[in-house]
TrEMBL record:
Source organism, top-level taxon: Bacteria
Annotated GO MF terms: magnesium ion binding; mannosyl-3-phosphoglycerate phosphatase activity
GO terms, biological process: mannosylglycerate biosynthetic process
Pfam families linked to this entry: Hydrolase_3 (PF08282)
KW Magnesium (keyword) present: yes
Protein name: Mannosyl-3-phosphoglycerate phosphatase
Keyword vocabulary terms for this entry: Hydrolase, Magnesium, Metal-binding
Length: 259
């Protein structure tokens, strides 16, 4: 197979999936065009491989890799998501090295267990079961004040563990962003031009690393600040939210590229 004319990296919630219904139906026309053109569609999300593989199957893009756990790891299509533990065991061990008085103020998904995850996230038990199948990163709640949080993050930093805040959750991993993983995946396809679509702060690096970035309107979240790529014309914003905006942005670019 030669190099495809384009590779598409997309966030899921609020981007390809509707914020409320989780449907990608309004994006079907663009998805079918991508399939006909054999353009790789790479899902990139905070979700686990176990969660993403189900969405890949529904969309029909399970032949492609995906960026999982916010870039902390990759889903290899050869394994169907049921792959190794990644570095999760090593990560949990590092977190447990923090002194108990500080460590005890953090409750990760592993500590919470399936029932605790349901309570903390509002996910259904089945969804929580998939969200608990972690390979690369550990989200959790930190109950202490800012000083203890600083001490926690400093101690983790010495162990090579990085932290990202997203909403209520603090997510710990050995690093890696959605943008880091884009390079890895795009090179596997011969480095075609990249289109990236996202709606939230954890998508910014991906949008900025792409040749074409699209900020999907998100009426439910805070507006993203204006990005440097917007002035340069590399990043644009959709008027329509979620999969509706996704559909028109992808079709527009294919048209613009004569595809
Ligand atoms: Mg999103």
């Amino acid at each position: 197979m030669g190099t495809p004319p384009l590779i598409v990296f997309t966030d899921l919630d609020g981007t390809l999936l509707d914020h409320e219904s989780y449907s990608f139906d309004p994006a079907r026309t663009a998805l079918e065009r991508l399939r006909a053109l054999e353009i790789p569609l790479i899902l990139a999300s905070s979700k686990t491989a176990a969660e993403i593989v189900e969405i890949q199957r529904a969309i029909g893009c399970q032949a492609f890799p995906a960026i999982v756990e916010n870039g902390a790891g990759l889903l290899d299509p050869a394994t169907g998501g049921a792959s190794s533990d990644g570095r999760y065991i090593e990560l949990l061990a590092a977190i447990n090295e923090v002194s108990p008085s500080i460590r005890s103020q953090f409750e990760g998904f592993h500590d919470l267990g399936p029932k605790g995850i349901v309570q903390a996230t509002g996910l259904t038990p089945e969804a929580a079961r998939l969200a608990a199948k972690r390979q690369f990163s550990e989200p959790g709640l930190f109950y202490g004040g800012p000083e203890d949080l600083d001490a926690f993050l400093r101690a983790l930093g010495k162990l090579g563990v990085k932290a990202r805040r997203g909403g209520r959750f603090l997510t710990l991993s050995f690093g890696g962003t959605k943008a880091d993983r884009m390079d890895e995946i795009a090179s596997g396809f011969g480095n075609p031009p990249r289109l990236a679509l996202g709606d939230a702060p954890n998508d910014v690096e991906m949008l900025e690393a792409a040749d074409h970035g699209v900020i999907i309107a998100n009426p439910h979240g805070a507006d993203l600040p204006r990005l440097p790529g917007e002035a340069a014309g590399l990043i644009r914003r959709t008027a329509l939210p979620g999969p509706l905006g996704w559909n028109s942005a992808v079709l527009d670019l294919l048209y613009q590229m004569d595809l």
